[in-house]
Design a protein that fits this description.
Layout (H helix, E strand, L loop, with lengths): L1 H32 L4 H22 L10 H19 L3 H12 L11 H25 L2 H11 L18 H19 L3 H17 L18 H7 L16 H5 L9 E2 L17 H6 L25 E2 L7
Antiparallel strand pairs: 1-2
The structure holds zinc ion.
Length: about 325
């Protein structure tokens, strides 16, 4: 089994992401060309991607201690999945479906704009809003900054990053980052269903992939897309490297100087800089009420930097394919 896994590891490392990206692009091109029923295509495609990456993650973990455990799933992930299910169905998957449905009859400034102009506009606008909302959640001061960080911190409390961990977050944070920027924005702009379909498919692919606990190496694509090699740094306990605020693209991180990428290296530790100041991530009620409690931590990631590891201690990645 180990020999087979070692044999397959390079295909996973260098092939899994390009394969799914090519698959999504091919489905998008065909669906738009043939004007398929976008709602019918969207669900199976996203569920298939999710299943594919869950299996890959199970068989080819980058670091076992960063992977999902049965305990984590029962005591944390499942609770957040159910909770956020109330807010947005099965995570981003349903958000995308809502966006396509709302686009069927949407009116707005982009409704008569050709597909090839409307698509980059919705991507850039959504990414811009996401980038700044996310960055301000980490770096903004004052009462607003503290509130934003306390809602966003729920997503950073786990000391590991894996596919289903993507759904771990405060509903208020998900409301802003997913529902407003992904489900509401395209129909509000008047995007046609084909534009919205491509937008939500590519967005969802990167939502799933970016949190993957697998040794994915995508080379120059890391400079363009939010992939595990760059997004993992966003979850580092070292605040000097916990950047990369982009959701799908690295465009605004490149533009505003928050892009961190060290090929062949991994962050030492994942989570928040000072976990003792926060409730356990499995104590869901405490995590959810954190933004509203006076004794809640007042520091966001950037402000806790003085106590965090500020030297760049990194170690090369070591996939656990042989163990
Ligand atoms: Zn964050």
């Amino acid at each position: 089994m180990n020999r087979l896994r070692n044999f397959l590891q390079p295909f996973v490392t260098y092939g899994a992401y390009p394969f799914t990206l090519a698959l999504c692009l091919a489905v998008c091109i065909y669906a738009v060309w043939r004007q398929l029923d976008f709602q019918a295509v969207y669900g199976p495609l996203v569920m298939g991607l999710m299943a594919f990456y869950l299996v890959i993650e199970l068989l080819f973990p980058l670091k076992r201690e960063w992977g999902m455990t049965f305990q984590d799933f029962i005591h944390r992930d499942m609770k957040f999945l159910v909770l956020n299910g109330v807010v947005q169905g099965m995570g981003q998957a349903t958000v995308g479906w809502i966006a396509i449905t709302l686009s069927l009859d949407s009116k707005g400034p982009l409704q008569n704009v050709p597909f090839y102009f409307a698509l980059p506009i919705v991507f850039i606008l959504s990414e811009f809003l996401h980038y700044w909302y996310h960055r301000l959640s980490h770096e903004f001061g004052g009462r607003v900054g503290k509130f934003l960080w306390r809602t966003h911190a729920a997503h950073h409390l786990p000391d590991r990053v894996y596919v289903l961990m993507h759904a771990v977050g405060h509903p208020l944070d998900l409301l802003a980052m997913n529902i407003l920027m992904m489900a509401i924005l395209p129909p509000l702009l008047g995007c046609t269903p084909d534009v919205t379909f491509v937008f939500v498919v590519i967005s969802n692919l990167h939502g799933i992939v970016s949190h993957l606990n697998v040794d994915i190496r995508a080379g120059w694509l890391n400079y363009i897309f939010s992939l595990p090699e760059v997004h993992r740094y966003h979850h580092s306990t070292d605040v000097t490297e916990a950047k990369n605020y982009g959701s799908v693209w690295m465009l605004f991180d490149q533009l505003f100087g928050t892009f961190v990428y060290r090929p062949g290296e991994l962050p030492l530790q994942l989570g928040v800089a000072e976990p003792a100041k926060y409730p356990e991530s499995t104590r869901v009620f405490a995590v959810l009420t954190m933004p509203f409690r006076p004794e809640a931590p007042n520091e966001n990631l950037s402000q806790t930097g003085t106590n965090a590891t500020t030297e760049n201690h990194h170690r090369p990645r070591s996939p656990e394919s042989g163990s």
